Task: structure prediction
Amino acid sequence: MAADHRSSDDIRDEPVAPVDRLFLQPQLDTVINCAMVCENEIPLDSVKSVLQIFSLMVHPKFFSLVVRDSAGREYWRRTEVDIDRHLIFVYRRLSDDPDEDAVNDYLADLSNSSPLSTEKPLWEIHFLVAHKTMVFRVHHALGDGVYLMAMLLSLCRRIDDPLQTPTTIGAVKTSFMRRRWNVLKLLKMVWFTVLYVLETLLTLLWRRDKRTAVSGGDGAELWPRKVATARFRLDDMKTVKRALPSSTINDVLFGIISSGLSKYLDTRSSTNGLKEGDQITGAAMINLRQHDLSSLKNVHGNTQHGNMFGVILLPVYYHKRSSNPLDNLKRAKAMIDKKKLSLEAICTYVASFLVTYFFGTKLVSILIYRIFCNTTFNISNMVGPEDKVTLSGIPVKYIRVAPSTLPQAITLNMVSYAGYADMQILVAKDKIPDPKVLAKCFEDALLEMKEVAASTMC
Result:
């Protein structure tokens, strides 16, 4: 990160928010790589004009450098932006593989070995011209996935109305304040909050998942990576959702992950002694905003920008093939229902803020890093446009995300778009040399659940 000395009378410099500073630490230095693949050739001159206009609209952090004063404190320093320095053009074909595989390989390389230059604001856009793809690279210190998705969608337009920005499938809001409470729910909230905070504390101190063929650990973020894509039809996920009353798409997603991981581990020569019901833990950064994507597009309003999240643990369990694939959905729903009743995410956010305030960001980054080291996978789920969109008049085929690597061997990032949900599976290739097999396990898990769900509703 760029080092500098802050003048006491330089009013342009603004302190980096404590949560944003986490992503500037070596252990958690994270870049979000978002690929937007178009159906036709990208009109480079037209897109560049759109980006020049867009650069005048975004939050000031997008044209600020990160500098440090003599005490090591980070600040945003406004600077002039030369947009040409942020645009990287690759005209040749990356390989003889199909476009999807070539783009995935490019994202895998970016996620592991291509930090952003600190001599300019922390974002850039790669144009893979031969593959009709733009890769938006934005440092996580500038904002979380929800905020950055809003920024990306502000560049796009609806196919049916080119004057309108896209609509999303649903508002992205936290639901805690909107619940109807009674004594029993309050008691459950206290119980589950205490239980899950203690579980997080134990994971931080010493508890870790049993070693398996898909385990990472300290230093795993440096391992070379591969990317594969699991593609799900949202209609299929909704069919499964309807088979279990009051379940959600997230319940279905975790049912898929539980079943898919079990299927994949069974394909390996050894599951390292895994027994029926053994826990495989995921870690997730949960958005705590009270705003939806439409309000986030108002970048100069009063909406909270940057990052606002809490870390929660999301366990799934190893099970051999079940007679009823919907059992995985039932277990996932039971787990997520308990998580929704707890204040785990809020507690980890407040704890991180307090530790940062009293002891500094470096200690918090070490603690969060340890949680990632002791879990098996990392997961995020972002809501994208409900219908197809255009960029400079060109229809967008799909949107996929693959961030920088973390110490888990598996990172799962799902983005919904135009009736589909694409899950990018970023893996350590020395541990998981066949990520397409893992992707197929996830896809098969959904199809099996859909088949059973459809038959039960007939």
About this structure: The longest strand covers residues 225-233. Residues 414 and 423 are 4 Å apart (CA to CA). DSSP finds twelve helices and 16 strands in the chain.
